[in-house]
Amino acid sequence: MSVRLRRLKADYEKLCTIFTQNSRIRIKKTLGNPPEKYQIEYIVSGMEKKLDGRMMLRNNFLVEITLTGAYPRMAPQCKMLTPVFHPNIAPHAVCIGDHWAAGESLANLVVRIAEMLSYQSYNVKSPLNGEAAKWSEENKDKLPLDKFDFASLLSIGEVVGRREDGTAVAGDTCANCGKKGLPAEMQVCTNQHVACTQCVMACPICQSVVCLKCALTTCATCKETVCAKCSYRCTACGQTACSNHKAPCTVCQQGRCPDCLVECETCHQNACVEHVRKVKFQDGRTGYACASCVQQAMTARKPAV
Question: What pLDDT shows up at residue 245?
Answer without folding.
Answer: 85
